[in-house]
Amino acid sequence: MAAVIDFLGMQAVDGTGTVAASDEQKKPHTLHLAGVFVGNVPVLVRAQIQMDESGAGVVLKMAVRSQDRDVSQIVAECIR
After folding, report:
1. In this model, does residue 47 exceed pLDDT 70?
2. Distance of alpha carbon 80 from alpha carbon 75, whole angstroms
3. How far is C-alpha 8 from the chain's CA centre?
4. How far is it, in rounded angstroms, from Cα 27 to Cα 29?
5. CA gap 42, 35 in Å, rounded
6. What is d(CA 32, CA 5) in angstroms, rounded to the nearest whole number?
7. What gap in Å lies between CA 33 and CA 9, rounded to an integer?
8. Separation of alpha carbons 43 and 36, rounded Å
9. Does pLDDT of 3 surpass 70?
10. pLDDT above 90 for 23
């Protein structure tokens, strides 16, 4: 989760930046992020993060919102 936050350069909000150790592998964690893109465009991200079934990696699903469709697309496509 810290890698997603650092890579996007955004701030976790609503206390979603940490996961209780007991919940770490049971269910997806929803991470809310807020930041500002180049040109002073506000951006919000909702990311669901969960360990994959094999335990060897993670599954990441992101929804990105901003006032500029192109900015949303750029942020959504920056992690592959």
Report:
1. yes
2. 11
3. 8
4. 6
5. 6
6. 10
7. 9
8. 6
9. yes
10. no
Task: Specify the higher pLDDT residue, 43 or 51.
Answer: 43
Residue at token pair 């990696």: 57
- Which tokens belong to 15? 């206390």
Q: Looking at residue 32, what is its pLDDT?
A: 97
The amino acid at 29: H
Q: Length of the chain, please?
A: 80
Query: Can you tell me the distance from the alpha carbon of 70 to that of 80, in angstroms, rounded to the nearest whole number?
Result: 17
**Residue pointed to by tokens 């893109």:** 37
Cα–Cα distance list, 72 to 6, 34, 42, 62, 63 (Å): 18, 12, 10, 11, 9
Helical H segments across the chain, by residue range: 2-8, 69-77
Residue that is written with structure tokens 């979603």 in the block = 16
The mean predicted confidence, pLDDT, of the chain is: 89
How confident is residue 72, by pLDDT bands cut at 50, 70 and 90? very high
